[in-house]
Each structure stands twice: as structure tokens, then as C-alpha cells.
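Course exercise 7: structure representation. Students receive a sequence record and must write out the corresponding structure in C-alpha cell form. The form below is the worked example handed out in class, using SGNH/GDSL hydrolase family protein (425 residues). Read each field label carefully; the graders check that inputs and outputs are placed in the correct fields and that the protein name is recorded exactly as given.

STUDENT ID: A-19
EXERCISE PROTEIN: SGNH/GDSL hydrolase family protein
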Amino acid sequence: MAMTNSLKRTICACACALGVAAAPGTVSAQSNTESGWVTTWSASPQPIWEGNFPLPTLLPFNLWQQTLRQPLRISLGGKSFRIVLSNEYGHDPLPVDGVSVAVSTGGGAIDLSTHHAVTFSGQGAFVIPAGAPMVSDPVPMEVASLSELAVSMHFSRPTEIRTFHWDGQETSYLAPGDQTGAAEMTDAAELPTRIFLSDILVEANPEVRGVVAYGDSITDGAASGPDLNARWPDFLAEALVGSNVAVVNAGISGARLLHSKMGENALARFDRDVLSRPNIRTVVLLMGINDISWPGQAFAPDDPFLTLDALKAAYAQLSARARMNGIRLVVGTLTPFKDALSGSPLEGYYSPERDRLRQELNSWIRSSDLFDAVVDLDRLVADPDDPDRIRADLQADHLHLSPEGNRVVAAAMSPDVLFGEDAAK
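STUDENT ANSWER:
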């Protein structure tokens, strides 16, 4: 039986920990750190969902004789970069007729003097197999940290969308024809989602370190405001910009530890979104509120209410897998959510019973020895007069954080918390 890369990494990490040399043909534990390549931006792929789910996908029916342009802001810069497209949840091969990249000048406009056609295995037009990602050839263009880029893709044939990222928090643009080389797109429609675009990697200093923010809508930036780069991982990237650290946002709105719907569950996507990334040193885990709040409510009416033991077991699994791969695990306590979604069709997301489970989980997180560090976000953002709520100036909708709340969270992720004894390196 063929050995998967993640299994190779796990075996080698265990072997190194025991002082045992890796067997010939396996990937050494050092292989994740040999190059200076690091993921500098990400939008974790999600499968589309069916119409019986209460939230719309916000996607067009398909892409056909159109250009899709997706602006983004990277964290760490580098002397060249690669683009990753994903057909992970596609049922059929995905034909792409052309990809280009340029510096974004705002909205759907680009600086044509920076325009580069992008090839994949030397090809400008290519097909991504069903279930697969596709990594571009290096783009010979130096990019500064916090650069604004725009990736344009042309689709000439009717193209089904089955892989996307729902909560883009950045406006994308869809226009007729092949406008990949247009400075300003004409007749463009705006989209709030990411489609097929999953990662940007940069070639940086060999001593580069990567941090993955692994969470749900609070990490994904829900309610922080589109086109503002006001998520907490954005502010963390700004704080670490001079320290040769890349910050990757692997948040998915609606993400859960144990069940899938708006993205696969945390245990299922941990290899893809954390372990497989080159040069990752730390993962910051902030997830679990949807596991507590979805069961028996409009999001998951038939799911059973979870127990504390089930949530603890999920955290323990993620801890074991991070440690076996030499990755530091930082965990945030779950933030208050009293009155979340009150008065909406999703009434019932909060209840005193659900909040008791949150507080029991937080108490366990604070005392557990499974984690390398704990950031007590619950106490950090709670209203001192009503600790079951987020402080008024830090919250956007009683569940998600305002930009100021996201700044507070990012500030708590100090180098000492993120890297421990290696903070000064």
C-alpha cells in the first residue's frame, strides 16, 4: 500500500523523537524546513452545500466565457511566489484557459506593468483533475510583505463550481470574455466568495517561520468588514511583518471540530490546512463554538448535543498530531456569545445550557497540559459587567469581533506565545 505524505511525516517525527533514523525512501522530519517556501495567504477550500441548508452559497450558477479576478493581501513577501488552485471537491476535471497575476490597485483594477502570465507545469491552459490541487510554476516577481495582488482566471467552457471559500471578506470580480490582461475590468459583477483559489506561497528567507490560524468564522473574519483586512490574522501579520513570519488564515466560517458542513471538520482538514504546509512552526486553534451551538438548531436540527468529553477528545487528537509533526499548538478559549443571532431565523444559537458547556470547555483548556500555550480570549474580550457577553466595543454582532476586537486578539498572540523559547530567533 502506498504511504501518504502525512503518514510519512508522522512516522519520521516519531522516529526522530525516539532517536531512530528514518527508513530509506521516507520523508525526513527535516524535509518540512529545507526550503524557504512558505504559505503567505490562504482561503481554505470548502465543498458547496445543498439548498436545505439555511445559508446561500452566494455563487454564480457556473463560469462560462468569463474572467474571474480575485484580489488579496499576502502576509510575508518573497523573491518569487507560487499560486495554488483547488478542484478538491470537483466531480469532474476542471479546465482553466489562462491565469495571470498583478499588483492590485484597488477594486478590480491592476497595475499592468506588474502583469505576469502564470503557467502550471509549463502550460498556460491546463486541466486540474477532480479532487486535486494544482501548484503553479514560480512567478519571477519579487513581492513585498503585505502586498496587494490580484489573480485572474479565464474560463471559456461552462465550468461547474464545487470548490470555494464562502466568507471571502474581499470582493472578487466576474466579467465577460477574457479580461485577464485588462487594467480595469468592464461590466464586472461583484462576488463575496473565493472560487478555486486556495493558496499563495512565497520563496523567502530559509529561516522563515509560518503560523496557521486554524478556526471558524471568528478567525475567518465574519462581520469584520469586506475589503478592510481587519481579521485578527491580518493584524497579526502586520505585527510580525519584520520578523520573517508568514501568517496563514485557515479559518472557515461555520467550521466545527467534529462535524462537516461549511467545510470539513477540523480533524479531517488538519493535514491539508496545517501539517502539509512547508515551514509551519505554530498553529493557533480557536474552534468549538459551532459544535456547541449548532445541534438542535436551524444549522443542524438533527445533530445530538455534544458532551464535554467529545470536545476534549477532538482537542486531544489535534494536539497529538501537531506534536508528532513538531508543530507548536496554541489554543484560545472560546469567546462569549450571549445574544448571538437573537431575533434572526437562527434564534437558539445561544442558550444558557450551551454557554455552560462553553465555560466547562474553557476551564478544561486553561488547565490542560495538552497545549504548548493557552490564550484566554474568553476573559480578554468579555464584558466585565456581564462576562457572558463580548465587550461592546470589541463585538460586531454578539458573536463575531469588531476590527478593534480583532486587534486585541492579535495583540495577545505575542512572539513568546507563538514560538516559546524560540521567540527571539
